[in-house]
Design a protein that fits this description.
4 copies of one chain form a homotetramer. By secondary structure, chain A is mainly alpha-helical. Chain A is built from 5 helices and 2 strands; from the N terminus they run αααββαα. Chain B binds a DNA duplex (15 and 15 nucleotides) through helix 3.
DNA sequence: GTGGTCTAGACCACT
DNA sequence: GTGGTCTAGACCACG
């Protein structure tokens, strides 16, 4: 039932942000393999977005194979393919890491410095978990 | 001299990307403290964008205090305030790190795992899927 | 409804004057808390300016937190934050007063003289030279 | 010899601001009737502006009759006409007052409130004298 | 030649 | 139909 903590900014398309957050939720196991999703309408209202927007995001995730629509019953489910989930998780991890390293090295941080910084870094310095 | 290697994608507004790339260039020292920038028109043509787009980005950087205009028509310069430059570099580093850590922890990586991953990560891995 | 009486001079940028007049209208309550604004195009045509010019002014007011955009395409509204509106009103009052007092004292009026002048002053004197 | 405290912003033309400040200085008596002005070059360097800019401002003040150029000696002087100076002072006062009152009433302050506000207002709340 | 503003008009993504 | 971005090109005041 794990309901997601949605949060959006106005910088990028909402549906893009929904995709990202759902992809994360699936990769993290917050949404379990095979789990049934709420209806588009319900998810939309929970996220405070237009149903069309939610629909668009889900369609994209379906295209990525992370969720599927059951033929008869008509509900949407997280993929049963545990491998796919794991692969998504590693994919996300590599994307994040590559982007992070590149950005940091561009402003003159060596890998050693980056790791040192990371060790001493406390989330919550400006965020809340 | 220090002419920037511009590169844009279609995901986000160009002017936003210009801001980011200039912010990085300033933070990295690629653009030096007090250095004079090329004219709006020249920078625009170098980056392959419309002068108005470049103008908008520069105006924003000016609002951030990273560059300034001399006497309204004397050209634009990187701020003389070395502290501001350093602060920007650390600000960028913190932003990157916070976003990275948050994203990684959200998909279930502990700090230890993150650091291990980072140590073994070689930029350029992007190609061996 | 509350359609604003626009009036511009050539001394300063139009977008600046739009900002000022909207700020005043918000501070005075002529535009109510939470009220929906007309579309950018409509406001532009009402004010007799190019939509881009109006857009620029509204973007700035948004940066100031006096208006906001609903879901990127839902139209623009005056902030719901009544406190912000009140604060803006007092801010304007202070700005006006400070500038006025400073200018008057610079040309040798004491506070007493200023107040006496003010008491005897009738708007509309502009015409009897 | 009274040397003026110049201060400029980038919002409006520099020469306009020079005119204003000189007009104020004359109206306040900071620059005395008949006093000789420094050379354009000197005034410009003191103010940190381009000589052309200072020249333009002085030409305008000359057009207004507030300063004049001596035929032979070639120096510039403040007008000898004390009445003109007084008139300028009152003109400035009326301009300031009218603009102030109008702006304040537009945001809903009655004359009584304005005067009360003025009495309790201390310059230096955000300025320095 | 510099930055700044403005207009005109097109295009886009989102709801 | 909404806000947002971008281009193109013109014009202006300033230095």
């Amino acid at each position: 039932m794990a309901s997601i903590k949605w949060s959006f900014d106005n910088e990028r398309p909402i549906y893009t942000q929904i995709i990202e957050q759902l992809r994360q939720a699936i990769a993290s196991g917050e949404l379990c393999v095979g789990e049934r999703l709420a209806s588009v309408r319900d998810m939309a209202s929970e996220a405070g977005v237009n149903p069309n927007t939610m629909q668009r995001a889900l369609a994209e995730l379906e295209r990525l194979g992370l969720i599927y629509t059951a033929n008869r019953t008509g509900g949407r489910f997280i993929t049963e393919d545990g491998g796919k989930v794991k692969a998504t998780r590693m994919e996300l991890a590599r994307e994040n890491t590559a982007a992070f390293l590149e950005a940091m090295e561009k402003i003159g941080f060596s890998k050693g410095e980056i790791i040192r910084l990371l060790e001493n870094f406390n989330l919550g310095d400006d965020n809340n978990e």
